[in-house]
Amino acid sequence: MDTEQQVFSVIKDRRSIRKYKPDPVPQEKIELLIEAARWAPSGENAQPWRFVIIKDRNKIRSIGKIAGTADRRQFSAEFAAGETEERLKKIKDPKKRQKIMEKLTAGYVSSFLENAPLIIIVCGRKDVWDLPYDCSAAIENILIMAAAAGLGTCWVESPVMDVRDEEKIKEMLRIPRNYKVLTAISVGVPDESPKPRPRLPLEDLVFYESFGRKEKDE
Hints:
With about 220 residues, the chain is of the alpha+beta class. Helix content is about 45%, strand content about 15%.
């Protein structure tokens, strides 16, 4: 397999993993993930990202609880506004729909973080204009490198979507005031093999020269 196909295979086979084996993540693999992130592009080469590696079980449990509470708050508000029904209207089985609704409003979507062997908190300097874009590039490098290294990851924003929760994370991890916390990434040896979720066909995504134009100029 040539290099292009190897890279594409890793990208295509990557999954968001929410169940992990208890095995610790070796230090050399942690450093490999961060090294991959370090080589991400950033506007004006600002490199605003910083990474806090969390192995301590108490901190991981606390982050998981914050994430679960945030989910419960968000999805309960959506449910009260009738938005959850709209979100799930394509699911015809009423029992399946009810089960999903209960999972959402109970805060179980992101609380799996409690059981991750490792969490990487991604934060960055607030004075950088392109901060969310720069850090997103670094995060994606981590996800792809983890998949290539036989690890599972999940990009989880729940612990820091609300500024009140972000403050809890910053206090717990002693993150300076001039830094913004963008996300948590769970990392571990996968204990599940999720099926790929469907992707939209290319013809629905790509236009030529102007939006909506599908004709290719040969």
